[in-house]
Automatic annotation (TrEMBL):
Residues 58-165 form a coiled coil. The keyword Repressor does not apply. Keywords: Coiled coil. This is DAPLE protein. GO terms for biological process: cytoplasmic microtubule organization; cytoskeleton-dependent intracellular transport. One of its GO terms (molecular function) is microtubule binding. GO terms for cellular component: centrosome; cytoplasm. It comes from the Eukaryota.
Length: 166
């Protein structure tokens, strides 16, 4: 039973490491998306409301990442507590039952973290889609601006000709 428990703890540690790596990748993706959104907002003269919307989305993603980091730290603390408890509980079968219960709780926490990471990935995909839509909107606005500028130049030319004629 103890060997099984030790193996389970090792498996949980490995899962935790995988979750940490995935979390760091998610953070990097969020940071990169934030940078892209910031560059997009700098390169366009879109309305301030769109800029603040993008900023709020980026802040929301950052706060979720911070929450995941806190949960991950809590999970690491729990794993350390389980290790300590495992070392001190060799003589007591009651401790083993507690460890098993804590392992179950730990498994639930890991599952929650995995779900949160999946939600974060979806959020990052949503941000990327929004970024693409904003780029398309920017391109459309540039085409409209060019058309309006051409119309304005034509009207100025027509008015000058009419003025010269008069």
């Amino acid at each position: 039973d103890r060997d099984t428990d030790k193996k389970r703890i090792e498996e949980l540690l490995e899962e935790n490491m995988v979750l940490e790596i995935a979390q760091k990748q998610s953070m990097n993706e969020s940071a990169h998306l934030g940078w892209e959104l910031e560059q997009l907002s700098k390169s366009t003269d879109l309305a301030d409301s769109e800029k603040s919307f993008v900023f709020e989305l980026n802040e929301c993603a950052s706060s979720r990442i911070l929450k995941l980091e806190k949960d991950n730290q809590s999970l690491q603390n729990t794993i350390q507590e389980l290790r300590d408890a495992s070392l001190t509980s060799r003589e007591s079968t009651l401790k083993f039952g507690e460890l098993e219960k804590e392992n179950q709780q730990l498994s639930k926490k890991i599952e929650k973290l995995q779900n949160q990471i999946e939600k974060e990935k979806q959020s990052n995909q949503d941000l990327e889609t929004l970024s693409e839509e904003l780029i398309k909107d920017k391109e459309q606005l540039q085409v409209i601006m060019e058309t309006l500028k051409a119309d304005k130049d034509r009207q100025i030319k027509d008015l000058k000709q009419e003025n010269d004629h008069l």
